[in-house]
Design goal:
The chain is an alpha+beta fold and about 575 residues long. It is built from nine helices and 35 strands. It starts with a helix and ends with a helix. Bound molecules: heme D (DHE).
Length: about 575
């Protein structure tokens, strides 16, 4: 992995400065930055699961099991699913966190578990006790809970899906032409996460055209190839299909495909546009192919299987990002814990053909390069990018970014003055932005290699964005502990970038521009409008405080509009219909 020496020099410098500050204390370092008064609205932990609401029984009590009442067991299960399962797995077999099965936990014993939960660890285990997130009594209960066999949440197969499936408006009864005068191509489907809704905001008038109930802790929206239908998925695995042609856009079908989910997409290959929809679940670990017009479930496929390298069985490999290939009638399915990318051929569901590519563990999010041929995705807990050729259905490269926990969202494509076409990711675990070459024809020796890495504002970044018509690259840092950073955005000027030189950035005080007196809102996920002239940012505050959407003029980087409305509760992801439908980013 070739990371420019500049990066190491910078790392040395930063750590030396950090060491100096730690040793010399505040005297030398700048006075302590203003800490966040509140925690992140969800510190990027699966704290919004609905698994915790599932009723569980204490699995066959053994003579030496520590005594725990059924109520305690239920309460401990809810805490475990809400705060621990994201890292240690629903069945406690381990994921990015260690396994917590009784064979392991009993070896360590109660005291060890209690201390570990209380103080956490530098390796990433939060200090649930000393942070006040869990009371002493809860820590004690969790330590006893981990000594017991884990409960097994119920599966979710065709009977359960069919019971949840609602065809609210049959295709034959839907409008035959658009019944409203909204420029639906420039609508922004805006996640109102803790309200379990999406707001459809008009990209031209900035007005909210509709607020629609969706799944619990709604996560992302994706658009049909036709640009007519919006598919929204909640963390509770509820999908709502919204018809944008209706007088007032509204739901026409809904279904639940499991207990926990994060991804949804529709078929985009020529001749198969919108024939199928697909959704991926965290629990049960499976993906589901549905009728693209009605959400009727057609095919449920479990992702359980062996980890690609150790070749040992994993009981709950979660489905992370899903994209639709433009080159073949295939869905591209990231499977997190086994580290496999599945290219699912949807032309014959009865004889499903799947190419199973050994990639890297803990695949998360990702996007396409500017030609839409190459899928570039982060195996974020392993600090790597994986590149798939969707035309040849094969793995092209796995490369370390040189940063901590790359988190691209769908990433950002632009033409670098020296390196040519590149795709960019920022990082959760440090301040770096990494560029990977994406032009195997014109820049052969750079293709699929990290060609540059430079600092943005600070760690805690989740999303990076640009647009083919823009000369700017935007990088957020909503999970940075410093309020001044998490409420701002760094902007780089693309045509000023130079090999070997860290580009200058302009810091936009988006949170300040929103003029929100209460709380410490975080600025998350830049999203362009259809013309590529404006960038929209979510100013994400706690559920009981005011949030906003801030619109910036991409040319001048000046504030253009602040959208405030009491219905905008915890706005996070925004999905412009035109850009999301065409994979423009
Ligand atoms: Fe996301 C995308 C998983 C927390 C906002 N998130 C994704 C994708 C996955 C994922 C697998 C890619 C979907 C795709 O492309 O098909 N997200 C998870 C988690 O497991 C995690 C870490 C914890 C959880 O409890 O869900 C998590 N995500 C969050 C948040 O806390 C965020 C910041 C706020 C929120 O709304 O919940 C958040 N995730 C987003 C957004 C996208 C996303 C905005 C889509 C980005 C895009 O531009 O496509």
């Amino acid at each position: 992995m070739t990371v420019p020496p500049r990066k190491y020099a910078r790392l040395l410098l930063t750590s030396a400065a950090l060491a100096l500050t730690l040793v010399a204390g505040p005297a030398l370092g700048k006075d302590k930055p203003k800490e966040h008064a509140d925690g992140p609205a969800a510190a990027y932990e699966p704290s919004l699961t609905t698994l915790g609401q599932i009723k569980v029984e204490i699995p066959g009590r053994k003579a030496d099991d520590p005594v725990m009442t059924q109520e305690e067991f239920q309460k401990a299960t809810t805490i475990y699913f809400e705060r621990c399962a994201g890292c240690h797995g629903v069945l406690r077999k381990g994921a990015t966190g260690k396994p917590l099965t009784p064979d392991k936990t009993r070896e360590n014993g109660y005291d060890y578990l209690k201390n570990f939960i209380t103080y956490g660890s530098p390796a990433g285990m939060p200090n649930w006790g000393t942070s006040g997130d869990l009371s002493e009594a809860d820590v004690d209960m969790m330590a006893r809970y981990l000594l017991l066999e884990p409960p097994n949440p119920p599966e979710f197969g065709m009977p359960e899906m069919m019971a949840s499936w609602k065809l609210l408006v049959k295709p034959a009864d839907r409008p035959t032409k658009k019944m409203n005068d909204i420029d639906i191509d420039n609508l922004f489907s805006t996640t109102l996460r803790d309200a379990g809704q999406v707001a459809l905001i008009d990209g031209t008038t900035y007005e909210i055209q509709a607020v629609i109930d969706t799944g619990y802790a709604v996560h992302i929206s994706r658009i049909s190839a036709s640009g007519r239908y919006l598919f929204v998925i909640g963390r509770d695995a509820k999908i709502v299909m919204i018809d944008l042609w209706m007088k007032v856009p509204g739901p026409v079908a809904e279904i639940k495909i499991g207990a926990e989910a994060r991804s949804i997409e529709t078929s985009k290959f020529e001749g198969w546009e919108d024939k199928y929809a697909i959704a991926g679940a965290y629990w049960p670990p499976q993906y589901v192919i549905m009728d693209g017009d009605t959400l009727e479930p057609k095919k449920i496929v479990s992702t359980r299987g062996n980890i690609y390298d150790e070749q040992v069985y994993h009981p709950e490999p979660r489905v992370a990002a899903i994209l639709a290939s433009h080159y073949k009638p295939e869905f591209i399915v990231n499977v997190k814990e086994t580290g496999k990318i599945l290219l699912v051929d949807y032309t014959d569901l009865k004889n499903l053909k799947t190419t199973e590519i050994e990639a890297e563990r803990f695949l998360h999010d990702g996007g396409l390069d500017s030609t839409h041929r190459y899928f570039i995705t982060a195996a974020n807990a392993r600090g790597k990018l994986v590149v798939i050729d969707t035309k040849e259905s094969k793995l092209l490269a796995i490369t370390e970014t040189g940063g901590q926990t790359p988190h691209p969202g769908r990433g950002a494509n632009f033409v670098h003055p020296d390196f040519g076409p590149v795709w960019a990711t920022s990082h959760l675990g440090d301040e770096s932005v990494a560029l990977i070459g994406t032009d195997p024809e014109g820049h052969k020796d750079q293709a699929w290699k990290i060609v540059d890495s430079f600092p943005a504002m600070g760690g805690g970044s989740l999303f990076i964005k640009t647009h083919p018509k823009s000369n700017h690259l935007y990088v957020d840092a909503p999970l940075n502990p410093e309020a001044s950073i998490s409420s701002a955005v760094a902007v780089f000027t693309i045509d000023k970038m130079k090999a070997g030189v860290d580009p200058e950035s302009t810091i936009l005080p988006i949170g300040e521009w929103a003029g929100i007196p209460e709380g410490q809102p975080r600025v998350v996920q830049p999203e362009f409008n259809k013309e590529g002239t404006e960038v929209w940012f979510s100013v994400w505050n706690a559920k009981d405080k005011e949030s906003a959407i801030v619109v910036v003029d991409d040319k001048t980087l000046k504030l253009k509009k602040v959208i405030k409305d009491k219905r905008l509760v915890t706005p996070t992801g925004k999905f412009n219909v035109f850009n999301t439908r065409g994979d423009v980013y």
